[in-house]
Amino acid sequence: MPLQSLIMFAVAAVFGLAGAWMLLQLRHAQPPARVYVYRMAGIMAVSLAIVLAFSAHAMWQWSVPASPLS
Fold it and tell me: How many Å is the Cα radius of gyration of the chain?
């Protein structure tokens, strides 16, 4: 696996965990402004994590040499 893909997977994991933490904080009573910010930022962070993970996987697949039989 190329180093660039590993870095992208690591960044995706960080954003995914941060977004999940923000969304899990919504289980407790929060002021309206914090609910809005945590909901928006949490959803965007989880979305970024998904897109980065897909991109890292694609970069990893493109960097693998094709087999000689194909």
Answer: 17
- The pLDDT assigned to 61 comes to 86
Predicted structure pTM score: 0.80
Tell me: the pLDDT tens digits for 4-37?
A: 889 999 999 999 999 999 999 999 998 999 999 9
Cα–Cα distance list, 16 to 9, 26, 48, 59 (Å): 10, 16, 8, 19
CA distances from 40 to 19, 37, 55, 61, 67 (A): 9, 5, 22, 32, 44
Question: Angle formed by the axes of helices 3-24 and 32-63, to 10°?
Answer: 160
Q: Which residues, in sequence order, are CB contacts of 29 under 8 Å at separation 6+?
A: none
